[in-house]
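Hi all, long-time lurker, first post. I run a small reading group and we've been trying to get comfortable going from sequence to structure in the token notation. Rather than ask abstract questions, I figured I'd post a concrete chain and ask someone more experienced to write out its structure so we can walk through it together at our next meeting. Sequence below, copied exactly:
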Amino acid sequence: MEKNQLEKRYGLFTAICMVVGIVIGSGVFFKAQDILNYTGGNMLLGILAWLIGGVVMVICAFNFANFATKYSKVNGVVDYAEAAVGEKYAYMMGWFVSTIYYPAMTSVLAWVSARYTLVLFDANADITSGLCIALGAFYLVLSYTLNVLSPKLAGKFQVSATVIKLIPLAVMVVVGTIVGLVNGQTGEAFTQAAQSEGGDFGSVFAGVAAAAFTYEGWIIATSVNAELKDAKKNLPIALVGGTLLIMVVYITYFIGLTGGATVDVLMTQGATTAFKNIFGNIGGTVLNVFIVVSCLGTLNGLMLACTRAPYSIAVRSHGPKPEMFASVDEKSNMPANSGALGLLFCGFWFFYFYAANLTAPVFGLFSFDSSELPIITIYGMYIPIFVMFIAKEGKKNVFKNIVMPVLGVIACAFMMFVAVYAHGVRPYQAAAANGEFAFPVLFYLIVYVVIMAIGLVMYKKKQK
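-- Answer (accepted) --
Happy to help. Here is the structure in token form:
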């Protein structure tokens, strides 16, 4: 094995579990309530929101699966950016996922994991307390330690957590649907939706934005293509198969919830009420245990990406101290220095998420949702990759290299519009009604531009 080269340690099943396990986290358990509230309790519009979000994910995953059959180097999305657009764009993509996208999502999952852990023992626990923050920080360090010291064990945990988190979803799909058909609540929910005059495209867009968070993270599976056995064959299967499975699970789970509670109850009390109504208080407690495991599994997958992201640009001799962050530890065969830098970025975003979500946000107008807003820019950065891929490879296969990338561009543009609508237009209208100003997407983009400009300066310095 060459120096600074990672070991081929993961198989197809681990790759599929990485896609499914990273995407299915805590979001599916509480975003169903948000989607119903956005759509005014209209189940049909809610299903449409889940379906649109899922189709966008599958289209993009299909395109990256196609890229995976052609390019394999160090870090999937960075490799594809380099092959399609060029070295400089690949560096900027690597810088973005290293400093914003991966660590922002990871820090949120650390806090969510701590939150559900405390609620498991005390339903009235203060989720903004110092204890919650300390536990979240502990989970961050624990997942980092697991990934850096024992990457194979981290992969096994990812598989186990994926299987465990699918259990409550599968149970609700089967039992909830059967109960709903017997007691008539499922049929009533759809009848109510068909007769409803409420809900419009604006409510569906807001619902898609909520669903987007639950669907996000599948691209992280490409971060281990250098460690995946037969990556050009296995990664495409994992991406397409995993994302299709996720979409089916989400939609059928959403329908199954109606067996445990009416739409009105789901809108006010959330999905856990449906579990308690069907399985009792013990069932509700067991659900919380599954949710904690689900969150930790997602956190593990996200940290896996964070520890490798700086390595993906350093191994190309770019970024800060490339000789340091490209080094691979001989014993663990892991980029330990890269992992430490990734943990540092996670720590920054962890503090930001906490401070921005206090009753009196520390950062004022610059307090935005760091769990959802990076979605705007990740989809925006996919677009040049799709466009240039068409220009370079389009003539070889019309469907795979032209039709699907064009659909990918449309899907990405739509997701950017939905995110701006949900985090820009809607909060602006709500604030304006009270004589205030709020446009969080604008302030996120300012932060994004500043961080990317810092990265660009470092790239230029290296070139000189």
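A couple of things your group might point at:
The chain has one domain: 12-417.
DSSP finds 17 helices and no strands in the chain.
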